[in-house]
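Module 6 notes. Inverse folding takes a fixed backbone as the condition and produces residue identities as the prediction. Think of it as a translation problem where the source language is geometry and the target language is the twenty amino acids. Below is one complete input and output pair. Work through it position by position during the lab.
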């Protein structure tokens, strides 16, 4: 017969019992099912919401830039108010710039998502 015939010529294959072949098939099916379940679990974990970024990746709270110096009586009140406002504005700008630079360095290092 041809190689596709029903005659088994290999003595090893002929020696295998049908029960052993069935057991091997069932074992293979169970192993494949376990692999599929494991893949489903991995996909479920991957699809889950990503964890929130660490606290150091969050912007800093607004700085306390209130002027607490003594109120000078030797200076014009309008001039003093302008200088006080300028001081507080510079303080806020400096704090924001420092915070942006810190976050940029953390993102470049890969510690925080962009």
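Target side of the pair, the amino acids:
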């Amino acid at each position: 017969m041809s190689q596709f015939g029903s005659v088994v010529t290999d003595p090893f294959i002929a020696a295998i019992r049908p029960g052993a072949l069935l057991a091997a098939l069932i074992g293979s099916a169970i192993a494949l099912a376990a692999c599929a379940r494991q893949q489903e679990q991995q996909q479920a974990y991957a699809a889950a919401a990503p964890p929130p970024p660490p606290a150091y990746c969050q912007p800093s709270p607004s700085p306390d830039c209130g002027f607490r110096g003594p109120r000078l009586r030797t200076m014009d009140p309008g001039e003093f108010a302008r200088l006080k406002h300028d001081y507080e504005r510079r303080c806020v700008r400096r704090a924001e710039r420092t915070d942006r630079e810190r976050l940029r360095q953390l993102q470049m290092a890969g510690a925080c998502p962009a």
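Reference fact for the lab report: Residues 77-109 form the longest helix (33 residues).
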